[in-house]
Amino acid sequence: MGKSDSNSSVPEELRNALDQHRGRLLQFVRKRGSALLKYEEEDDLLQGIQLRILGAASEFEFRGESAALRWMLQLSEQYLIDRRRYWHACRRDGRGLLHITQATITRGRAGGAVADPTSSVTSPSSSASKRETQTLAGLVLNLLVERDQLLVRSFLNNDSLPDLAASLGLSYEAAKKSRLRALERFRKAFELASKAR
Fold first, then answer.
1. Which domain holds residue 51?
2. What is the pLDDT of residues 18-33, one digit of tens each?
3. Are residues 102 and 136 in the same domain?
């Protein structure tokens, strides 16, 4: 059976292979995606893999069961790599973002519910709490509108205001005010997310 064309639905062979190898894909998630299970449920990872496979249906060419499984496992591996990169980026962005929120948190504006994650205490529980808080900060940044994300990242990267103004087509004062408003929106969103934890 040949390659499916983009106008047809998912090939029957692919649907059958997905049904037949669901257990194998779940094992793959448990083995190769175990580090991701602290952030996402295994069923969510499996569903993401299945969606990735279905999204690539136009590239599928049935050449036997073992070839179909290999193809699905390759897509599964790439999906898990993408998810690891996503969570790594959240933690990486979160490190710098905590400096933005630190003053807010230590002044108690978050109701005192969140400890200062930048303290030098290195117990396992404080390290885990710090990582979770960094990840939360990265997630909060990703929830902001795209322009606010750009403005907050420009602050993290120490981009100069004249350069920022030029890239956005704004005056220096407008860029400064826009960045300050974006930072404040981030602080407020982080505060709300911290209280909800």
1. 12-86
2. 999 999 999 999 999 9
3. yes
